């Protein structure tokens, strides 16, 4: 883990650029995007009919190097999927931000905000130019209202992902505690 001084993140800007809806047509660029999306546990084994419904969830955007995707403490609006490029996740620790993850293509983050309207527990920053897909809570709620079966499938998968990540965090915490106890 590396530290990043809070000033550099504070001085970074969030550019006001809109997210563009994704069509998932059959052209090469969209098929690559669909392949990346379908490899994620949230969307694997989705039928062709359901993909047409899911297309309304996806929005794309390009972030430039060191552009902030979201900041610690701001409201969580959705989750993000890295299509190309890299994203660095920083956790707040006293006066510094500490790098806790570096994510590449096929990685996703921010999924808890699809379940609960909680503030962000970290800051996400693009490392180099990055293309992301965003999935936002209002569109997911709309899908759940109009296609409850598909919405239930996605929420169940989302719950499994969150539980899996919680178990992994708990395992790392236990290992850290063991290491700390053995040093004392």
Output the keywords:
single chain, 184 residues, alpha+beta, Jelly Rolls, eight-stranded antiparallel β-sheet, 5 helices, 38% helix
Structure, explained:
The chain has 184 residues and is of the alpha+beta class. It has a single domain (3-183), classed as Jelly Rolls (Sandwich), CATH 2.60.120.10. Helix content is 38%, strand content 29%. 22% of the residues are buried. The mean pLDDT is 85.
Q: Strand percentage, roughly?
A: 25-35%
The rounded distance between the terminal residues' Cα atoms is 23 Å
Mind telling me the CATH class? Answer: Mainly Beta
* Overall helicity: 25-40%
Describe the global form: globular
- Per CATH, the superfamily is Jelly Rolls
CATH topology: Jelly Rolls
Domain count = 1
In short:
It contains 5 helices and 8 strands; from the N terminus they run E-H-E-H-H-E-E-E-E-E-E-H-H.
SSE map:
Layout (H helix, E strand, L loop, with lengths): L2 E3 H6 L8 E2 L6 H11 L9 H7 L3 E6 L4 E3 L7 E16 L2 E8 L4 E2 L13 E14 H10 L1 H36 L1
Antiparallel strand pairs: 1-6, 2-3, 3-8, 4-8, 5-6, 5-7, 5-8
């Amino acid at each position: 883990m590396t530290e990043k001084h809070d000033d550099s993140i504070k001085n970074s800007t969030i550019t006001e650029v809109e997210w563009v809806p994704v069509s998932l047509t059959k052209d090469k660029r969209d098929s690559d995007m669909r392949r990346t999306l379908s490899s994620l546990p949230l969307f694997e084994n989705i039928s062709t009919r359901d993909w047409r419904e899911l297309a309304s969830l996806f929005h794309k955007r390009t972030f430039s190097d060191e552009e902030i995707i979201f900041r610690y403490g701001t409201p969580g609006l959705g989750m993000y999927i890295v299509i190309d490029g890299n994203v660095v996740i920083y956790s707040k620790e006293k006066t510094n931000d500490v790098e806790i993850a570096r994510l590449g293509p096929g990685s996703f983050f921010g999924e808890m905000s699809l379940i609960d309207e909680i503030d962000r527990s970290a800051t996400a920053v693009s490392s180099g130019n990055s293309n992301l897909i965003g999935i936002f809570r209002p569109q997911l709620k709309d899908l759940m209202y109009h296609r409850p079966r598909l919405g239930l499938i996605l929420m169940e998968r989302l719950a499994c992902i969150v539980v899996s990540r919680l178990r992994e965090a708990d395992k790392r915490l236990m290992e850290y505690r063991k290491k700390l106890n053995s040093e004392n």
